[in-house]
């Protein structure tokens, strides 16, 4: 396949128009046509999110489990709507993959060859447990695993590990002295105090112990749109397990299971989740699967017949919309206002997708550079010659390779702060093929995948420092080629990223 030059990027907003509301849309004139899209049934929004989740191309164990949760949710929606579900084969395939990737001790790591990881294992077991409830053959033997869990609980050195062990034992329906272990956990002091309290509350609910939800009130916050979320406002909000969305998911589960009626609060929390689909989707596969499985039971349980609301578009375009879903395109220089009326929400998004053919070098959170073996580094550093009027840019220079002569594409990554779950995407020149596809475990590399157009390298933890990775290539086809930018990003929070410049390559 031929891939376009540069990087595809998306800019936009997602709105939950609940009450009578008016918003003025502003587009970037340089990014081309703007897309407007509106739905009036929240299940359509969830199905769209599920489709995006399933199409995600990487397959670490977390993502396999997330896809499985997504497909199981899609089946529930199909049954609710009385439609046909055609993806049982895909569900069984994902179950087989998870069984294949299970480690000897009965749990899972991030990738098949990664060390055991409790939060990913819990995510996998939740997915397999739900599949089993829905009639799929899972075939996971939990007996010996449960014995190991109890032994590890007795050690009890890590609060969050113990919490996940107790949750997994609950999934296994294992008979244990849960109150004793939970009492031990309550005595621990953790820097993540609000998360600590949420975890204890959920465990008490799971094991049918007395609890109260008073502590939640002091951490309740509202957005500009009046939607509810939970935050302690003091923690790093870009950790896959400890952030406002994860806090709100956990608070939602607690209120959902509480004997007191919290329907109004839960509805406003659901709107918060939808509001956070800033660019049309949630931030990562784990977050997406967690939100879908948490809110779907309430969405399917709401038998209220929706009276179709109305959407009025005014300004340079005038249109009254009463049938959904609705979509249209407008020019980026047009002035557009959106007004919503009616008793039920509209889910509205506007976005611009564009191919950035000349992306600028980005190096705020990381730095990434590439070069071919035995050639000088050719990054975008301006060199001023002795002639003050002459400036040359190394990014415009051409690397030259010889057809049939193997080379290495060397990637250097500078990590400026300790990072977790890092993905490095390294495009492969169109005239080259792989000399080999070795697995590498140096420089904290957890997993590597080779695609026709790029190599993806995954690192579970990268402490601050510099790291070098190599890809063995064979130049095959003579000609002139464009080498798209290499990119490094946090897999679960891709807003933290860096890339180098586009480069030119000649194969002789």
Structure description:
With 508 residues, this protein is of the alpha+beta class. The protein is 31% helix and 28% strand. The strands form seven sheets. A five-stranded antiparallel β-sheet has the order 18-19-16-22-23, with no helix packed on it. The radius of gyration is 25 Å and the shape is globular. About 4% of the residues have low confidence.
- Helix % is 25-40%
Strand content range: 25-35%
In the predicted model, the low-confidence regions spanning at least 5 consecutive residues are 377-395
Q: In angstroms, what separates the terminal alpha carbons? A: 22 Å
Q: How many strand segments?
A: 24
The largest β sheet comes out as: 5 strands, antiparallel
Strand order within the widest beta sheet: 18-19-16-22-23
Brief overview, please?
The protein has helices at residues 42-55, 61-81, 88-101, 118-133, 143-155, 159-171, 178-187, 193-206, 244-257, 263-275, 285-301; strands at 7-17, 21-25, 34-39, 220-222, 228-230, 310-315, 319-321, 326-330, 336-341, 346-356, 366-372, 382-384, 391-393, 398-401, 407-415, 419-427, 432-434, 447-450, 454-462, 465-475, 479-483, 487-490, 493-499, 503-507. The chain has 508 residues and is an alpha+beta fold.
